Amino acid sequence: MQLRSTERQLGCALALCFLALIPWGIPRARALDNGLAITPTMGWLHWERFMCNLDCQEEPDSCISEQLFMQMAELMVSDGWKDAGYEYLCIDDCWMAPQRDSEGRLQADPQRFPGGIRHLANYVHSKGLKLGIYADVGNKTCAGFPGSFGYYDIDAQTFADWGVDLLKFDGCHCDSIQHLTDGYKYMSLALNKTGRSIVYSCEWPLYMSPLKKPNYEEIRQYCNHWRSFADISDSWQSVKSILDWTSSHQERIVHVAGPGGWNDPDMLVIGNFGLSWDQQVTQMALWAIMAAPLLMSNDLRNISPQAKALLQYKDVIAINQDPLGKQGYQLRKASNFEVWERPLADLAWAIAVINRQEIGGPRSYTISIVSLGRGVACNPACHITQLLPVKRELGFYEWTSELKIRINPTGTVLLRVEKRSHTSKSLI
Ligand SMILES: *[C@@H]1O[C@H](CO)[C@@H](O)[C@H](O)[C@H]1NC(C)=O
Ligand SMILES: *[C@@H]1O[C@H](CO)[C@@H](O)[C@H](O)[C@H]1NC(C)=O
């Protein structure tokens, strides 16, 4: 049947509205009920930058020690990180002594953490920050320190007694899917039983997926965030592999994220050595689109003003922390461009366009406004602000218009689209 043009237009609009309901209109599963991570966790985590450096003789400034964390705590407050929202100062692997104490409790390495973790937690709390710690569901941590298998209750209680506020629970040295699944669930309940509010950061799907498809709805009931993909490293190769994994699994993972539980694509490596400026812009923009925990791993004592400004960019953090709590997704991929979008509160949208071509110079991309936000972001008009790579008011756009942007190789243009008309300048 041939539709007349107005009917066809209406039919199109309805089709787009219908698209808006699937596949990400599925109701979200219940989240872990601990009242935490209502927006993605923000903070600092030592792993990518400092790894398992135990040599405090040769490298006193970069070994895993209480001095490192006390220095970072001071800088998080004095250099504006806390004010920007970075709140959790997190210890990763390699903080432990090689043995448990006589009562079976984990203990910090006495040389590197002479004051112990309780003392460090008090110090971190005195700065208005929160402390994160690390343990493992199996018999050993990834670096070979004591694992929590058989000690879940004792370890949860120890962390609560120390005043810990977040637990990253790794999945190395675990011999079966059953132990992995039971262990992650058990620890969630053990943390709850302590009565202390402790963010629970899991790697359950990462260790499970080689053997069995993770059930993300179930994982969300036990964890505040969960890693599904390999550790990030300080390279564009690593960042783009995470983006590719995420877009190719988005129909399974995007709808699961929401207040209380988030997909975790791993740390921000902005401010280190491996990413060009454009690649750092891409990581910041896409971690905002993905509603990712923002856990920086860098050296706050030595970071460029440009990287600092990017990490503390309020408008981009506001997208990451948007109260609607819906993760974005890849909308389209063609000619080495990727368009991603994320619905925001107040009918706004964030749009990111990445130039994935790694040869040549900046390339132009023309956005057809009607295609944004499942056809409704700019109906009948919207106001667009470019946030990255630099902030620029682009003005008002009609539903049927086009927007042409230029993007550097491996860089991203991040836009905020708001539903305002010329005349009212208010939400419609
Ligand atoms: C423990 O779980 C219950 C319900 O499942 C919840 O109401 C309570 O706030 C939780 N407590 C903590 C400390 O997370
Ligand atoms: C830990 O080691 C014991 C003894 O070898 C083994 O029975 C148990 O299954 C292991 N647990 C895990 C989670 O790998």
Automatic annotation (TrEMBL):
<dbReference type="GO" id="GO:0016139">
    <property type="term" value="P:glycoside catabolic process"/>
</dbReference>
<keyword id="KW-0326">Glycosidase</keyword>
<dbReference type="Pfam" id="PF17450">
    <property type="entry name" value="Melibiase_2_C"/>
</dbReference>
<dbReference type="GO" id="GO:0009311">
    <property type="term" value="P:oligosaccharide metabolic process"/>
</dbReference>
<dbReference type="GO" id="GO:0016020">
    <property type="term" value="C:membrane"/>
</dbReference>
<dbReference type="InterPro" id="IPR017853">
    <property type="entry name" value="GH"/>
</dbReference>
<dbReference type="GO" id="GO:0004557">
    <property type="term" value="F:alpha-galactosidase activity"/>
</dbReference>
<keyword id="KW-0458">Lysosome</keyword>
<dbReference type="InterPro" id="IPR013785">
    <property type="entry name" value="Aldolase_TIM"/>
</dbReference>
<dbReference type="InterPro" id="IPR000111">
    <property type="entry name" value="Glyco_hydro_27/36_CS"/>
</dbReference>
<dbReference type="GO" id="GO:0046479">
    <property type="term" value="P:glycosphingolipid catabolic process"/>
</dbReference>
<comment type="subunit">
    <text>Homodimer.</text>
</comment>
<comment type="similarity">
    <text>Belongs to the glycosyl hydrolase 27 family.</text>
</comment>
<keyword id="KW-0378">Hydrolase</keyword>
<comment type="function">
    <text>Catalyzes the hydrolysis of glycosphingolipids and participates in their degradation in the lysosome.</text>
</comment>
<keyword id="KW-0325">Glycoprotein</keyword>
<dbReference type="Pfam" id="PF16499">
    <property type="entry name" value="Melibiase_2"/>
</dbReference>
<keyword id="KW-1015">Disulfide bond</keyword>
<dbReference type="InterPro" id="IPR035373">
    <property type="entry name" value="Melibiase/NAGA_C"/>
</dbReference>
<feature type="domain" description="Alpha galactosidase A C-terminal">
    <location>
        <begin position="325"/>
        <end position="411"/>
    </location>
</feature>
<dbReference type="GO" id="GO:0005576">
    <property type="term" value="C:extracellular region"/>
</dbReference>
<dbReference type="GO" id="GO:0005794">
    <property type="term" value="C:Golgi apparatus"/>
</dbReference>
<dbReference type="GO" id="GO:0005764">
    <property type="term" value="C:lysosome"/>
</dbReference>
<protein>
    <recommendedName>
        <fullName>Alpha-galactosidase</fullName>
        <ecNumber>3.2.1.-</ecNumber>
    </recommendedName>
</protein>
<dbReference type="GO" id="GO:0042803">
    <property type="term" value="F:protein homodimerization activity"/>
</dbReference>
<dbReference type="InterPro" id="IPR002241">
    <property type="entry name" value="Glyco_hydro_27"/>
</dbReference>
<feature type="signal peptide">
    <location>
        <begin position="1"/>
        <end position="31"/>
    </location>
</feature>
<dbReference type="InterPro" id="IPR013780">
    <property type="entry name" value="Glyco_hydro_b"/>
</dbReference>
<dbReference type="GO" id="GO:0005102">
    <property type="term" value="F:signaling receptor binding"/>
</dbReference>
<keyword id="KW-0732">Signal</keyword>
<keyword id="KW-0443">Lipid metabolism</keyword>
